[in-house]
Amino acid sequence: MKEDEKYTQAISMLSERVQRILERVPQAVKASATEIRLRVDQPLSLYCGARVLFVDERGNVSNQPNKLEFLISRRDLQDNLIALSGWSVHTHQREMTEGYLAVRGGHRAGVAASAVLENGRVSAIRDVTSLNLRIAREVYGAADQILAKCFADRLCGVLLAGAPASGKTTILRDLARQLSSGVDGAYRKVCVVDESGEIGGAAGGNIQNDLGPCCDLLAGYPKAKGLQIAVRYLSPQVLFCDEICTPQEVESVALAANSGVAVVTSIHASSFAELTRKPQVQMLLETGAFTYLVLLCGAEKPAQVSEIRKVGEIT
Q: Which three-class secondary structure string do you get for 20-78?
């Protein structure tokens, strides 16, 4: 799918009013936009990598907000939340308590709201104040450097680090596709545990993003549970998931690695120094699951590799 087609697919899930405005923006902006931001009483904005553009009601874009022309109203926000949920907000309550909405096509909407607490845990949300629709991009060849460096001799574990909006999911998706498609000379059994629906973009039983012919997709499973199911029942050679955070997820990574499965996953960090300061990274590295650490460039150069090191070179 072309980059502007991904944009068109993403905005088709917004309200008619906002969709009409976003249809009018310049073609170059459509091809490069990575996020659509709707904040109550603020201008509609598009992020193209690290660059922010503000959109008026005619679809004109500017690097300066003009608050007199067009602001997102609370009604706009409500209409877009309903549209993004497929007109069934209540069925997405679990996702929204985690801060997001999984959207058809692998796109994901971040949700900022007030939390409703029950016994110290978020049981629901109310008073949504902003939405961030992240446009899923398929960048063929984005993982070429990682494939050549990390998988030249054998399958191994890779931990991908990058700041928010640096393209971690895009890299994971392309690497899964390449390994599943035999690009390195052998077709690998790949399994993707896709809790938030961004990697595979499953909808109605169809995988909308290209993961190759030898990939199994566990969509919507909590990562820890999905990793365990994959190892036990799907016999993967390489196991993918996005954004490892909790001790339970780290434990499941260790289970996979100690079962002879190569694990490829990601974590938020903008430098190797920052990466090594994270407690969960120390736990991850202690599992022995990873041979290589990959650092991405950042939001200014999304889905581009900055540096690849072996684990022993930074610990």
A: HHHHCCCHHHHHHCCEEEEECCCCEEEEECCEEEEECCCCCEECCCCCCCCCCCHHHHH
pLDDT of the residue at 160: 96
Phi, psi of 245 (to 5 degrees): -135, -50
Q: Report which of 128, 134, 105, 111 is spatially closest to residue 36, judged by C-alpha positions.
A: 134
Task: Return the top range by mean pLDDT from 5-9, 65-69, 154-158.
Answer: 154-158
Say how far apart CA 259 and CA 219 lie, in whole Å: 22
The structure tokens listed for 274 are: 């920052």
| Six-digit token string for 60 | 């004109």
Tell me the CA distances in angstroms from 261 to 82, 171, 201, 240, 289, one per residue in order.
40, 19, 24, 10, 9
Provide the pLDDT for residue 110: 93
Please determine, for residue 312, whether its predicted confidence score (pLDDT) is greater than 80.
yes
